[in-house]
């Protein structure tokens, strides 16, 4: 091994350096995935248990060490079960590494501009404006990379071009399709009446019911952007990576959707303050 430097008896080589660097990236990615979610508490619980186990072992308390050892024995399996959503998201992030190569190819073939032309965002924005004004509840999932077949199959397949009138018809309270979420992929409404996973986040405002929880849950579990419009208040929220974006003007919502679709997002997602209302928000009037 090529020696890089030496601290006392410790010899540090290039391989060690790369090893520590990769572990740091891995830990940072794990931290980013579980930050703000209930998984942090579970992770800290497991860590505390592991530390106690080490102390008990060092103190040679055999009975306790054996009991805790049994827990540690099934630790990996327990972690996989407990952190299933986080592991899924992590693998999705890694999987998107292959997308990098695809993107280079697609950029060369001018795929991005084609995609943009296909997708008339104004149809969405006009529908959102009307839905807000008429206080019609709506849940829209934007998926950049996949058709989300698993979730689309919980509803009714449509595969129709995005269109303002169609969206308004779907979410109309008398429509048989209005319950649940619409999934949009590559400029097409893939399905309506879809059931989304519900978030277990404990820190949501009491006013947030199932529509908001499922918007958040979907963004926690998948690499999607979710737009929810409240039936009660007409408030529009965006959910991404397990976080809500503060009340936005419609122009800003449009910008966020386009940033997401073009994979060009800044990292300025913030959680909505508990109890915040549109009237209190400085950026409101969406
Ligand atoms: N898991 C889910 N997946 C998709 N849609 C859901 C899910 N749970 C609830 N919804 C939708 O949300 C609607 C009811 O939501 P609820 O009133 O509990 O939500 P809310 O967050 O308080 O929203 P609102 O402010 O519009 O009342 C349902 O009629 C359904 O259309």
From TrEMBL:
<feature type="transmembrane region" description="Helical">
    <location>
        <begin position="12"/>
        <end position="31"/>
    </location>
</feature>
<dbReference type="GO" id="GO:0005524">
    <property type="term" value="F:ATP binding"/>
</dbReference>
<protein>
    <recommendedName>
        <fullName>Diadenylate cyclase</fullName>
        <ecNumber>2.7.7.85</ecNumber>
    </recommendedName>
</protein>
<dbReference type="GO" id="GO:0106408">
    <property type="term" value="F:diadenylate cyclase activity"/>
</dbReference>
<dbReference type="Pfam" id="PF02457">
    <property type="entry name" value="DAC"/>
</dbReference>
<dbReference type="Pfam" id="PF19293">
    <property type="entry name" value="CdaA_N"/>
</dbReference>
<dbReference type="InterPro" id="IPR050338">
    <property type="entry name" value="DisA"/>
</dbReference>
<dbReference type="GO" id="GO:0004016">
    <property type="term" value="F:adenylate cyclase activity"/>
</dbReference>
<keyword id="KW-0548">Nucleotidyltransferase</keyword>
<dbReference type="InterPro" id="IPR014046">
    <property type="entry name" value="C-di-AMP_synthase"/>
</dbReference>
<keyword id="KW-0812">Transmembrane</keyword>
<keyword id="KW-0547">Nucleotide-binding</keyword>
<keyword id="KW-0067">ATP-binding</keyword>
<feature type="domain" description="DAC">
    <location>
        <begin position="84"/>
        <end position="252"/>
    </location>
</feature>
<feature type="transmembrane region" description="Helical">
    <location>
        <begin position="38"/>
        <end position="57"/>
    </location>
</feature>
<dbReference type="GO" id="GO:0006171">
    <property type="term" value="P:cAMP biosynthetic process"/>
</dbReference>
<dbReference type="InterPro" id="IPR034701">
    <property type="entry name" value="CdaA"/>
</dbReference>
<keyword id="KW-1003">Cell membrane</keyword>
<keyword id="KW-0472">Membrane</keyword>
<comment type="similarity">
    <text>Belongs to the adenylate cyclase family. DacA/CdaA subfamily.</text>
</comment>
<dbReference type="InterPro" id="IPR036888">
    <property type="entry name" value="DNA_integrity_DisA_N_sf"/>
</dbReference>
<dbReference type="InterPro" id="IPR003390">
    <property type="entry name" value="DNA_integrity_scan_DisA_N"/>
</dbReference>
<keyword id="KW-0808">Transferase</keyword>
<comment type="function">
    <text>Catalyzes the condensation of 2 ATP molecules into cyclic di-AMP (c-di-AMP), a second messenger used to regulate differing processes in different bacteria.</text>
</comment>
<feature type="transmembrane region" description="Helical">
    <location>
        <begin position="63"/>
        <end position="83"/>
    </location>
</feature>
<comment type="subunit">
    <text>Probably a homodimer.</text>
</comment>
<keyword id="KW-1133">Transmembrane helix</keyword>
<dbReference type="InterPro" id="IPR045585">
    <property type="entry name" value="CdaA_N"/>
</dbReference>
């Amino acid at each position: 091994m090529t020696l890089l430097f030496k601290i006392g008896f410790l010899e540090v080589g290039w391989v060690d350096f790369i090893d520590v660097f990769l572990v740091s990236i891995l830990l940072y990615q794990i931290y980013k995935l579980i930050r703000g979610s209930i998984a942090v508490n579970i992770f800290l619980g497991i860590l505390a248990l592991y530390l106690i186990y080490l102390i008990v072992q060092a103190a040679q308390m055999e009975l306790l060490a054996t009991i805790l050892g049994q827990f540690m024995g099934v630790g990996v399996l327990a972690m996989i079960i407990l952190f299933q959503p986080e592991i899924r998201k992590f693998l999705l992030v890694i999987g998107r590494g292959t997308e990098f190569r695809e993107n280079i190819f697609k950029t060369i073939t001018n795929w991005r501009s084609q995609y943009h032309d296909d997708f008339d965002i104004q149809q969405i924005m006009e529908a959102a404006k009307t839905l807000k004004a008429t206080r019609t509840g709506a849940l829209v999932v934007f998926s950049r990379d996949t058709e989300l077949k698993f979730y689309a199959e919980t509803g009714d397949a449509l595969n129709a071009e995005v269109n303002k009138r169609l969206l308004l018809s779907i979410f109309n309270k008398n429509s048989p399709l209005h319950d649940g979420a619409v999934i949009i992929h590559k400029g097409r409404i893939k399905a309506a009446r879809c059931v989304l996973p519900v978030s277990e986040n404990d820190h949501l405002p009491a006013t947030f019911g199932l529509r908001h929880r499922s918007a958040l849950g979907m963004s926690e579990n998948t690499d999607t952007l979710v737009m929810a419009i409240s039936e009660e208040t007409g408030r529009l929220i965006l959910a991404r990576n397990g976080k809500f974006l503060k009340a936005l003007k419609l122009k800003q919502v449009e910008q966020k959707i386009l940033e997401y679709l073009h994979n060009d997002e800044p990292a300025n997602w913030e959680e909505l303050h508990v109890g915040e209302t549109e009237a209190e928000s400085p950026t409101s009037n969406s």
